[in-house]
Design brief:
Layout: H1 2-5, H2 10-13, E1 15-20, E2 24-29, E3 32-33, E4 37-38, E5 41-47, E6 52-56, H3 63-72, E7 74-79, H4 89-95, E8 100-104, H5 107-113, E9 121-125, H6 136-141, E10 142-147, E11 154-159, E12 164-166, H7 191-199, H8 207-217, H9 222-233, E13 239-241, H10 252-259, H11 261-274
Parallel strand pairs: 6-7, 7-8, 8-9, 12-13
Antiparallel strand pairs: 1-2, 2-5, 3-4, 5-6, 10-11, 11-12
Amino acid sequence: MASKLVPSNPEKVMVIRDLVPRTITTLSVPFFRFGKIKIGGRGTIVRLQSGSLAVFSPVALTDEVKRKVAELGEVKYIAALDAEHHIFLGPWSQAYPNAQVLGPETLPEKRAKQKNEDVPFAFVFSKSKPITTISPEFDEEFDWEYVPAHINKELVFHHKPTRSLITADLLFNLPATEQFSKTGVDANSGILTKIFGALQNTRGTAIWQQRTIWYGTSSSDRPGFAQSMARINKWDFERIIFCHGDVIESNGKSVFEKVFKWHLDLAKSDATKRS
């Protein structure tokens, strides 16, 4: 199944970019939802002030990626940001066995059922047992929010020194222009891609993405989802690093508030009722 989702030649089509020199590096690749829809994929490497590396939503571990990692520092943390973003978790964990693996509840069981590589999870985020600390060096630089109300059990991180929000499937910013830039294929081509892109972009009022998240992604527990969005909105971020679609370098907070306006309004209304 993975062969239908990701490229067979990732080393030729991956875009490795230093988003923030010596601090944030992105690994952008083509990715096809359901094997047909061009949504792109992106792994993010953050170099902590200690020199340790935190890897979020890892993508293919090519030789070039290994060289880049060796240049940056030692991988200490590997995070699967939701129950879907784990295809390359095994190879990264095997290559960097001293790294602590982070992921949401349901993922260890899912991987076992799928007979994926054995990965020792150091931290499994759950609604019943909130994780409030990872390590002193990690805690100092990151905020995080586990969103169990998200259909994919989403983890969201905020790198405070660079004011960067790192997401998986929380919201999209299609088309995936950078992620398909080395393929020779138009990231917006194909009728299914065009339809999905119309639903999952941040342009204009982003009304269709608002509706998709309100009636779909968060529908199982809309109040709980809204509370998570309100907590994230208190963070001081400017940049949004998406797994699917292009990075937003500035005004990320205003984009977040636009896409999640209905949920933020709901959280505010619930807070008023409780007061």
